Amino acid sequence: MIQIGSISDKIKLNNGVEIPWFGLGVWQTKEGQEVERAVEAALKTGYRLIDTAAAYGNEEGVGRALKASGVARNEVFVTTKVWNSNQGYDSTLRAFEDSRRKLGLDVVDLYLVHWPVAGKYKETYRALEKLYKDGLVRAIGVSNFQVHHLEDLLHSSEVVPAVNQVECHPLLNQRELRAFCDRANIKLQAWSPLMQGNLDVTVLNELAEKYFKTPAQIILRWDLQHGLLTIPKSVNPARIEENAALFDFELTEAEMASIDKLDRHHRFGPDPDNFNF
């Protein structure tokens, strides 16, 4: 099992860039005070990864919070993503400039293709390769890519994606995809790790009681011990702090296996092979 001792721990991506294991996701976090307060609370707690996207509509708020935080730019890892309607080579380059302006950043740490839009994601990724080669992003990757999408992309790309960000949690533990990404040296990052709040699961409740933790903390610890990057979302400062209190206990191998057995291939979000947006 992976040994991670603190919220500040990082791992090297396939290009040598270091990324924090743990971060804050801001999906469905409102632009303005809500996202600014969430990012402020996360940074005060010690989070050093903030994950946003053009489609979330809150890049400007993230940028304002980063600037106001007083935390040095090189200490915070910022991810954003190109949305489906902007996919394609030239349109992706324009979309990136728009995101960079809204975030107020010269360089973005990680830029992702948000969804594998058929007929477009290869050209989109080619634009990401240019941004990477031009030094405007420190690492590039994809989101919501299945094994067959990755196989297709790897046949034509020059830069192996550093990250594949996907829905991953105990009810959808992505075993096959995790194994493929391990072989390809692509780090898997879990979105919606907390199953969109559907946490009333017997095994999780029992382990939470044993360790004096919450079911959410049990899942996030399971993520880390499996070597998964994870980005839980919250707008509540107390919950943001609670989610990060993961480093004073460790699940046993038997307990990890008991959570693994919860897998039902159940998605709370869209299916990457069947989406229309």
TrEMBL record:
Positions marked as site (Lowers pKa of active site Tyr): K81
Keywords attached to this entry: NADP, Oxidoreductase
Active-site residues from the entry: Y56 (proton donor)
CDD domains: AKR_AKR5G1-3
Annotated ranges, domain NADP-dependent oxidoreductase: 23-263
A GO molecular-function descriptor: oxidoreductase activity, acting on the CH-OH group of donors, NAD or NADP as acceptor
Keyword Membrane: no
Pfam families cross-referenced by the UniProt entry: Aldo_ket_red
Residues where substrate binds: H114
Gene3D superfamilies, sorted: NADP-dependent oxidoreductase domain (3.20.20.100)
Family named by the database record: Belongs to the aldo/keto reductase family.
Protein name as catalogued: Glyoxal reductase
